[in-house]
Amino acid sequence: MVMKVIPRRSDERGNADHGWLKTFHTFSFAVYASGEHDQFGCLRVLNEDRVEPQTGFGTHPHREFEIFSYLVSGQLEHQDSMGNMEVLKRGDLQLTSAGTGIRHSEKCHGSEQVHFIQIWSIPHKGGLSPTYYTRHFTDEEKKDNWVQVVAPAGSPGVSDAREASGPAPVHSKLSLYATLLSPSSALPHVFPKEGDGELRKVYIHVVQTSRYNPGTPSGAQVRISGADVTVDLREGDGAYIMGEAGTEMKVENAGDRVAEILLFDVE
């Protein structure tokens, strides 16, 4: 079996402190441009954002992207041109299929900073009708377990209702899993056998929960291993991982605190 891991270190990400917004960009975004880090399969944007109270992203347009937000802490107020208005909190997953075009705003709600992961993926077809979904997953569900929070639309057990249990439907070849991994615990992940190509793609992101710390490694420690490869990650780090279908990798908490980890299985 073959597996390759390429770390994406937190302090190498694009980052900016605008006062009201502190942000890290895994892929090219806004004024940050990197030919080496434009996208990974259909995964196009992975931003770790912290927005201060009473501020946020004003109303702006999007089209032909699947846009979702994973809430880490605080509260995020969403409004859009489809008439949706919602305040999201820890454990919530919001997904907007922009399709032919929407306008929306995302602002910090309440008196505390909101910390969330902003994710965009490229849909497998254009001209879709705009749709909106929300899902909620508790910390207890995610404790030492991979919880699938996003799955391709039309997959078995995936509801297309605005609010439902189970993963939110995305119109991309992408699945997103989340875990809260305890110290000394480990979880396996097997590269799926479905899909095209010899090597399957996974992207791992370790959520930067400790603090906003550009250039300063801290917090949780995660070890990725499999097929004679071992790579250590810290909070804010990510990794491009390629493996043959059927290869098993292990994701281990090698530190002394709970690690919040996102795993993207993409094509």
Task: Explain briefly what this protein structure is.
This protein is mainly β and about 270 residues long. It has 1 helix and 22 strands.
Key descriptive features of the protein:
267 residues, mainly beta, Jelly Rolls, seven-stranded mixed β-sheet, seven-stranded antiparallel β-sheet, 52% strand
Write a structural description.
This protein is an all-beta fold and 267 residues long. The protein has one domain: Jelly Rolls. It is built from 1 helix and 22 strands. The strands form 4 sheets. It has a 7-stranded mixed β-sheet with strand order 1-20-17-22-15-13-14. The longest helix has 4 residues. It is globular. The model has no long low-confidence stretch (mean pLDDT 93).
Radius of gyration computed on alpha carbons: 17 Å
Indicate the CATH architecture.
Answer: Sandwich
What's the total count of β strands?
22
Q: Major sheet: order of its strands?
A: 1-20-17-22-15-13-14
The major sheet is characterized as:
7 strands, mixed
Residue stretches low in confidence (pLDDT < 50, at least 5 long) are none
Mean pLDDT: 93
The proportion of residues in beta strands is over 45%
The dominant shape is globular
Give me the CATH superfamily.
Answer: Jelly Rolls
For the record, give the distance between the C-alpha atoms at the N and C termini, rounded to a whole number: 19 Å
Q: How many helix segments?
A: 1
CATH fold-level name:
Jelly Rolls
**Count of structural domains:** 1
